[in-house]
Amino acid sequence: xxxxxxxxxxxxxxxxxxxxxxxxxxxxxxxxxxxxxxxxxxxxxxxxxxxxxxxxxxxxxxxxxxxxxxxxxxxxxxxxxxxxxxxxxxxxxxxxxxxxxxxxxxxxxxxxxxxxxxxxxxxxxxxxxxxxxxxxxxxxxxxxxxxxxxxxxxxxxxxxxxxxxxxxxxxxxxxxxxxxxxxxxxxxxxxxxxxxxxxxxxxxxxxxxxxxxxxxxxxxxxxxxxxxxxxxxxxxxxxxxxxxxxxxxxxxxxxxxxxxxxxxxxxxxxxxxxxxxxxxxxxxxxxxxxxxxxxxxxx
Length: 299
Prior knowledge:
It is found in: Cell membrane. The protein is α/β, with parallel strands linked by helices. It has helices at about 40-50, 70-75, 90-100, 115-125, 140-150, 170-185, 195-205, 220-225, 250-260, 275-285, 295-299; strands at about 5-10, 15-25, 30-35, 55-60, 75-80, 155-160, 190-195, 205-210, 215-220, 230-240, 240-245, 265-270.
C-alpha cells in the first residue's frame, strides 16, 4: 500500500478531531477525501505529509512513518496546495528547472528524477508560456504551474488540495485530463480533497467520506451513488402532463408504465441517486446520530 492508516487519532487539548480513522490507497489509485468543514480532512492530510504528529494510531506512507520520514522519502511526495506565494519575477521554465535540480540526488536506478523540464511544461499545458514571467500568467495558468511544481520531482504520491478552485470549465476539464494522465501513465497515487462532488466523481477511483473525525463511507463513486436506499427518480410526460415517481426498481416501473400506457408516454427520463445525494444523506445521517450498518462496520 502507498498509504496505510489504522486507528488514526488526533486530539487538540481536550478536543478529539480524529476518532480512529482507517483507510488505504494503492499504487496508481486516485482517492478523493470528502467531508464538511471541520471534519478533520486537513489534519489527516498534514499527518500523512509529515507536517503534524498524530496523537495515536498506525500511519505508513510509502512504507515509512511520516513522523520520521527523511529527505529521500520526502522527495517521493508531491504537494499542491490551494495557493502559494510564487516568485513573480521568475520565468516558468527557469523556476521549474531550478526546483528540479533539488530532486536529482534522489534519482534511483528504477526512477529517474526530476521530470525533464520541457516534458513537464508540455504535460501541464504551459509550453506556450514557458518563457513568460510568472506574474504575467492568468489564474488558470498559475494553477497549472502549481501542479508542475508539485510533480517536478516525479513523485510516487501526490497530494492535491482543492485543485481546481477558481478554474473556468475549460481549464477544469484540461486539469482532469492531466490527473488521469498522471495516474494512468506515470502510475502516481493521488489523494485529493475537494468540495466539488462532480469533480470527485470524475477523477476518483475511490471516495472516502470523513465526518466528525470518522470515515463514514468508502467506495467507488458508482458504489456510493447507489447508497441512498437504491432509489431512482422516473420522470415522464403523458398526454401533456408531467409526472415524477421515486422507485426502488426503475426497470420494473418503466415496464409497468408502458404496459398501462401503450401510447402517449414521452420525455421519459430515469435519474438514479447522484453522488451529491448520497454525500448529503450520509453526512446528515451522521450529524443526526443515525449511523448506517456500513458506518458501524467501518468503525
